[in-house]
Amino acid sequence: MMRNATPVVSIRHMKKYFVAERHLFRATDYVRAVDDVSLDLMPGETVGLVGESGCGKSTLARNVIRIYEPDEGEIYFKGVDITHLPNAKLHPYRNKMQMIFQDPYASLNPRYTVGDIIMEPMQIYHMYDAKQRSQKVQELLELVGLKPDHISRYPHEFSGGQRQRIGIARTLALEPEFIICDEPISALDVSIQAQIINLLERIQDEKGITYLFIAHDLTMVRHISHKIGVMYLGRLVEYGDAEEVYNHPLHPYTRALMSAAPVADPVKARATQRIMLEGEVPSPIHVPVGCPFSTRCPECRPECRIAQPVTATQNGHKVACYKYV
Amino acid sequence: MALLEIKDLCVQFQTRNGVVNAVRDVSLQVDQGELLGIVGESGSGKSVCMLALMGLLASNGRITGGQILFDGQDISPLAPACQNSPSLYEKQMKQIRGNRIGMVFQDPMTFLNPVLKVGTQITEGILSHERCSRAEAKNRALQLMRQVGIPGAEERFRQYPFEFSGGMRQRIVIAIALACNPKLIIADEPTTALDVTVQAQIIELLKQIAKESHTAVVMITHDLGVVAKMCDTVNIMYAGKMVEKGTVDEIFYQPRHPYTMGLLRSVGTHGVTGRQALISIPGTPPDLLKLNTGCAFMPRCAQAMKICKDYMPCETLLGSTHSTVCWQDCKNSADEVVAAACRDRGNL
């Protein structure tokens, strides 16, 4: 892996607030989906983002490829600030940043054949001539493990895992450098999940693509990621090398999350001391004052309820908690 | 005597494309206070099996064979008592559902009635199954709500489901399941829709309830992690068949069936760290409309033999609690099994 290279994607202090409710006589309520997140993705690296539903991981990803417009902060793609580029100027960057979606049933057009689906992005970007395109489609089908004669079939004829492969082939058609995988395996059966993970890893090894991998299955994230970020209520509470975060989690939330994750090993499951969290994630409209985790934290101190902790860094392992300030 | 014993259960669905045998000769046993996990992929028949037990199959589905013994009584629609009388069967099941067997489903929001207060929904079961006054039922409901860990039960009693979070709703559903002190709770993917930290709370709650009230729990799930954490015994299903049964330790540390082994390997816990390729099961689950006559796992199995394609292996006991359905373990009885299969087909 290249060190000291420019990051493929760099996110700086990104914020995204959605309007929840407007009031006549008092301030508008906002859902603080992403709150001051900074992240660097190095070439050929996989960054895993974990967190519970509603923690802002998908919103963050959608901000990065400008499906949503971030309210504050900047996004750099290979050093170029793309935060405020108008659509026309964004066009040359969009093909370099692609996305794989969670639900392979919803993300493919049911009226298109597999060939059309994979060819469409190339047509939009005027890549190759017609003959080369269909040849490229064949290559992509082979790459993702589908048969050449699948080209003229429709999405409904495929199983979930195969549909996800079609989605991956379409994503790869534009030869992207950066792919966002938004829960690509959570809709799939257990025996199929491993197939898709292996495929994604193989493609990364061959093409050196950078992944932002979003999931709530911690075992799979650990497996595929080089770096892991843990999000809670719109904030990045911990970030570091995958093994480091797994073996030595620092933030109390990360520890609780790791201990709550079911391990398919009865002896280990019996042995692990479970850190039980009280209650559930608070509403992102009324984020607690101070540390967002303070309401559930087993190690909460008085200062945690007053102001947000700053992020401390130890050997590249970042954590936002008063324990480490 | 076992609390629940299912013997050779078969369930069929009539569909536009033909007959689907969703459950094929499934046998299982649940003892009092036991935590049984049924593991399988989508379409493996694990939910259908339990719906059949409760008499809740969709209108195009029916039980075509087998016995369901609950507390020593055959409660299947094919039992002699109600074989020719669907209304008698329905009456009998009304006595059992929510009373002697409680149920927890995957999505609490579709289970709960959105226009009724949760208190009403908890007391409903108590009032219809037990002779008691409204006040008594309310007291019991409040006690249940406290038992499942809902703070401020008095106030929450008067609220509607939408005012609860996902985890709290699932607690309400568990309270409803517990309302009549059932002997058995069937939990169909109760934590799939929940977040990890909340999932851990609900698993802990179910475990604690089973222990305290000596209730048996059948846990249907596709998550081996949940099983490892919660269950005593595990049954693995594939394409409508039980392929392996055993205690948690036997299934996780001495798996025999190639499918079980594949599942365990593909979740990547067996010594896999970092970015080694996961060992996945090739292929996809079979189409239940186009099954071969032999082992359904054969097309994806690395150890498949010639015999696997045409003949169904028999169940082989590997220990007092551990059994598997695979030709590798019943080679010795191959001749008998093949002869029996030929006889059966001759009879059909």
How would you summarize what this structure contains?
Chain A is α/β, with parallel strands linked by helices.
Explain this structure to me?
- The complex is a heterodimer of chains A (325) and B (348).
- Chain A has a single domain, classed as P-loop containing nucleotide triphosphate hydrolases (Rossmann fold), CATH 3.40.50.300.
- Chain A is globular, with a radius of gyration of 21 Å.
- In chain A, a hairpin with a 2-residue loop joins strand 4 and strand 5.
- Chain A has ten helices and twelve strands.
- Chain A is an alpha/beta fold and 325 residues long.
- The mean pLDDT of chain B is 88.
- Chain B is globular.
- Chain B has 348 residues and is an alpha/beta fold.
- Chain B has a domain of 85 residues.
- In chain B, strand 11 and strand 12 form a beta hairpin.
- Helices cover 36% and strands 22% of the residues of chain B.
- Chain B has an eight-stranded mixed β-sheet with strand order 6-7-8-3-9-10-12-11, with helices on both faces.
- At the A-B interface, helix 6, helix 7, helix 9 and helix 10 of A face helix 7, helix 8, helix 9, helix 10 and helix 11 of B.
| Structural category of chain A | alpha/beta
Terminal CA distance of chain A:
31 Å
Instruction: Please list the strands of the largest sheet of chain A in the order they lie side by side.
Output: 6-7-8-3-9-10-12-11
Fraction of helical residues of chain A: 25-40%
Oligomer: heterodimer
Q: What's the arrangement of strands in the largest beta sheet of chain B?
A: 6-7-8-3-9-10-12-11
Hey, roughly how much beta strand do the residues of chain B contain? 15-25%
The largest interface is:
A-B, 41 and 47 residues
The succession of helices and strands of chain A, N to C, reads EEEHEEHEHHHEHEHEEHHHEE
Class from helix and strand fractions of chain B = alpha/beta
Say which CATH homologous superfamily of chain A is assigned.
P-loop containing nucleotide triphosphate hydrolases
Total strands of chain B: the figure is: 12
CATH topology of chain A: Rossmann fold
Low-confidence stretches of chain A: none
Q: Count up the helices of chain B.
A: 13
Average pLDDT of chain B, rounded to a whole number, is 88
